[in-house]
Design a protein that fits this description.
- The chain has 139 residues and is mostly helical.
- It has one domain.
- Helices cover 63% and strands 0% of the residues.
- The protein is built from 5 helices and no strands.
- Helix 1 runs parallel beside helix 5 and helix 3 runs antiparallel to helix 4.
- The chain is globular, with a radius of gyration of 18 Å.
- 26% of the residues are buried.
Length: 139
């Protein structure tokens, strides 16, 4: 479950940071602050303020092409979201819903999706799993 939460948190953080650098940033900020407020009402205002600060940094990263700064913002919010979801797993469906709403309509198939795969192998069996393309050569 920890891996799934980390993946969801990472996808959500990426969508969030991208959303904060757009004209609809206030909707993204409010949606996350509301989500936080359900679990930790005393922290919702602080999270909203932090998201406003993140917007400033996200805009600067976009303007200057600073991928390192942008990735740092994503990593920071991924860690925060992962901790929130670990403490309040009941928020997972709500976070998914919020991220679906924030994801640009033209993202189409490029939008990140959660993929869960499980396999069991025994004996000399091999299991190959991929979320997309895979090339297997025997060598």
């Amino acid at each position: 479950m920890e891996i799934e939460l980390a993946a969801l948190a990472g996808q959500a953080a990426s969508t969030l940071v991208d959303g904060l650098a757009t004209a609809g940033w206030e909707r993204a900020r409010q949606a996350l602050a509301d989500l936080w407020g359900r679990a930790q009402p005393d922290r919702a205002d602080r999270v909203a303020a932090d998201l406003t600060d993140t917007r400033t940094d996200a805009l600067a990263a976009r303007r200057t092409g600073d991928e390192e700064l942008a990735q740092g913002l994503v990593d920071e919010w991924a860690a925060r979201l992962r901790r929130l979801l670990a403490a309040h797993p009941e928020l997972v469906p709500e976070l998914r819903r919020v991220m679906d709403e924030l994801r640009p309509a033209d993202a189409g198939d490029a939008a990140p999706r959660t993929v869960t795969m499980k396999a069991t192998a025994s004996g000399h069996a091999r299991v190959t799993m991929a979320g997309r393309d895979v090339n297997i050569t025997k060598g």
